[in-house]
Design goal:
A two-stranded antiparallel sheet has the order 1-2. The radius of gyration is 20 Å and the shape is elongated. The protein has a domain of 73 residues. The chain is mainly alpha-helical. The mean pLDDT is 84.
């Protein structure tokens, strides 16, 4: 993903949450109403197709933005940590998992 697209996505995300993070004294009810409005619509994400956005995603974006001290760049999508790695095992595991089932300490 190129830098320009990442910036467009960050600005899109900020546009959705800006009313909730910039207005002081917004009640929890007003915030929940705005979140419901966001999650009830279908959105065209930059560089992608139309999609819906989950409540937990909106709350995560708000949290990320606030923890960053109001830095819009914090809303950019992060590269995958496993980029370039296989998602499946290519070799058979040395020990089968079945003997371990039910023996985990509690």
């Amino acid at each position: 993903m190129d830098k320009d697209l990442r910036e467009k996505i960050a600005l899109f995300r900020y546009g959705l949450i800006s009313a909730m993070v910039n207005q002081k004294g917004t009640s929890r009810g007003e915030q929940e109403l705005r979140i419901r409005q966001i999650t009830s619509q279908s959105w065209k994400m930059p560089g992608g197709t139309r999609t819906s956005i989950a409540r937990s995603t909106v709350l995560r974006w708000i949290s990320i933005y606030q923890r960053s001290g109001g830095n819009i760049d914090s809303l950019q999508p992060q590269p995958r940590k496993d980029r370039g790695c296989s998602r499946c095992w290519t070799a058979k595991p040395k020990r089968p998992w079945s003997p371990c089932v039910g023996k985990c300490p509690r």
